Amino acid sequence: MERYEVVVAGAGPVGLSTALFLADRGVRVLVVDKRDPLDGPPRASTTVRTLELFRAIGLGPTLDRVGWDGPLPMRSMVKDSAVGAVLHRAAPPPGYVERLDACSPVDSRRAMTQYELQRIALTELRRRGGQVRFGAELVEFAVDAEAVRARVTDVGTGREYQVVSSYLVGADGARGRVRELLGVDMPDRQVDARLNTAFFRADLRSLMPESATHACFIRNEQVYCTLFAKGANGDRWSSHIMDYPGKPAELTQLSSEQTLRLLHAAVGDDTVPIDLIECNAWEAAIGLASALRRDRVFLVGDAAHVQSSAGGAGHEHRHPGRAQPRLETRRRATWTSR
Ligand SMILES: Cc1cc2nc3c(=O)[nH]c(=O)nc-3n(C[C@H](O)[C@H](O)[C@H](O)COP(=O)(O)OP(=O)(O)OC[C@H]3O[C@@H](n4cnc5c(N)ncnc54)[C@H](O)[C@@H]3O)c2cc1C
Q1: What does the pLDDT look like over 156-184, one tens digit per residue?
Q2: CATH T-level fold of 73-107+192-284+323-338
Q3: CA 173 to ligand 1 centroid distance, Å
Q4: What are the Cα distances from residue 182, in Å, to 4, 19, 32, 287, 320?
């Protein structure tokens, strides 16, 4: 049996950040994750606020070393293909970026993938004495007046052990076990859109130089998707595929062949080599847990709330009691590069 002040279930960006900030204040913390969360695609990108918080605990130089310059804030364009014509450009009002930059020590263009942020958080957490265990699944817990007693399984060996802590933080994602065990639901969760996201390697920067400064959207008769650079070199990309002819209403995993065909339609040249890393089908949903804390147990991150990346970009979400937007409007939702 082991004893900690705080146990965090989940080593995603939120779990690792929670543990890092606790360890930075001298709290004895353990993070368990049932898999290795750094073994995957880059997923989301960071926001200025995240980088400000990391900077506040002395990580400014590390962020400067790892981060890169992403698109200018709120600057986007729609093209008919990567190599094709620009259909539409959007930019913030004059002076907006200068005002934004005056508000923060972090450059508003500074970008970093979720994966890179998690790697920094993991290294810095360990440096501050935090314990992290991958392949360790929280399966059960019980709360009493003094402590939380969690049962953890070593995924590799099947061995079970108990961890005792003053508090437990459920940072175990949208389908979190902690929320389930707490009996907390997400009553108004609504699915906004069903998407397929592809992560891939390709040399698109030279074909689409605008991607260095703009969030790029592609709309043509074969596909409606994003093309976002996922790194300084412009060789790694993500594409949220929002629509294509014959797209089924239900969540559907695309085959590699279908994904490549759609990506080539987006590029506008099917001779461009594309090396697929991973494809996911996922629901962009919006929802808030009915409670964020019970006794000694807290919910954070996607376990506590999910939101669509389109939320802040003029996209109309469905709300109970409000008229439903037409499908056409919903399909036209724009996606932030964040
Ligand atoms: C393919 C993909 C692309 C995405 N792209 C974007 C994007 O472009 N923009 C954007 O804003 N967001 C994006 N997201 C969403 C973003 O990644 C999530 O919002 C974010 O990861 C949530 O962080 P989190 O730490 O709360 O949870 P998660 O990152 O989901 O981490 C939860 C962790 O808990 C672990 N876990 C689960 N159950 C247990 C258990 N019982 N015991 C121990 N560990 C457990 C899991 O293994 C996981 O590592 C994307 C997500 C995916 C899957």
Answers
A1: 999 999 999 999 999 999 999 999 999 99
A2: D-Amino Acid Oxidase; Chain A, domain 2 (3.30.9)
A3: 5
A4: 20, 21, 18, 17, 26
